[in-house]
From TrEMBL:
Its EC number is 5.99.1.4. GO terms for molecular function: 2-hydroxychromene-2-carboxylate isomerase activity; glutathione peroxidase activity; glutathione transferase activity. It catalyses: 2-hydroxychromene-2-carboxylate = (3E)-4-(2-hydroxyphenyl)-2-oxobut-3-enoate. This is 2-hydroxychromene-2-carboxylate isomerase. Belongs to the GST superfamily. NadH family. Signal peptide: none annotated. It is an enzyme of class 5 (isomerase). GO terms for biological process: glutathione metabolic process; naphthalene catabolic process. The active site is at 13 (nucleophile). The lineage of its organism: Bacteria, Pseudomonadati, Pseudomonadota, Gammaproteobacteria, Pseudomonadales. PANTHER family: GLUTATHIONE S-TRANSFERASE KAPPA, GLUTATHIONE S-TRANSFERASE KAPPA 1. It holds the Pfam family DSBA.
Length: 196
């Protein structure tokens, strides 16, 4: 029986992006199933009293140096999008919707969005920019916007975020292997150990 890695993430989190660059191949190597769990990081912060490291200037300077070290180690690009930190409510509703309505294209969607934000430094808070990114990746921007307004989609994101908080999540990314929780993209070696 293969093990499962649940990956709670928010597109607007650079650490989530870094973890995403590694998790699919990590899970493939260890015969584990990767389960994507989109959540709203802002909602998690609100519920737990946690805050983005960028809200603490001294910490912010260090965190980005650290993220660049990991990007170099992973052989990936990491660049900050304009207006960071961004409000990801619409994006994460869209993420829940694509996972729900086009699951076979979900990984292509994640790739387009993470690359647009953290490699191409696109401002996905601008609806025209977002529409261009979606279109280029083969998604219908109007359909996407309509999905983000659906009550079921809004409720699903809220439920996922509340579940994350109930399970002890206080930031992104957070991975679970069974009941074991691992916070941060710098804990992936422990995820590997948990997969045994």
């Amino acid at each position: 029986m293969s093990k499962t890695v649940e990956f709670f993430f928010d597109l607007g989190s650079p650490a989530s992006y870094l973890a995403w660059t590694q998790l699919p191949s990590l899970c493939a190597r260890h015969d584990a199933q990767l389960v994507y769990r989109p959540m709203l990081l802002g909602g998690v912060f609100q519920a737990t009293g946690n805050a983005s490291p960028v809200m603490v200037p001294a910490k912010a300077r260090h965190v980005f140096v650290d993220f660049q070290r990991y990007a170099k180690r992973y052989g990936v690009t990491l660049a900050l999008p304009p207006g960071f930190p961004i409000n990801t409510l619409g994006l994460m509703r869209g993420t829940v919707a694509v996972q729900r309505y086009q699951p076979q294209r979900f990984e292509a969607y994640l790739s387009a969005m993470f690359q647009a934000l953290w490699v191409q430094q696109r401002n996905l808070g601008d609806l025209q920019v977002l529409a261009g990114v979606l279109q280029a990746a083969g998604f219908d921007p109007e359909q996407y916007q309509a999905w983000t307004a659906e009550p079921e989609v809004k409720a699903a994101l809220k439920d996922a975020t509340e579940e994350a908080v109930r399970r002890g999540v206080f930031g992104a990314p957070t991975c679970f292997v069974g009941e074991q929780m691992f916070f941060g993209q710098d804990r992936l070696e422990f995820v590997v150990e948990a997969l045994g």
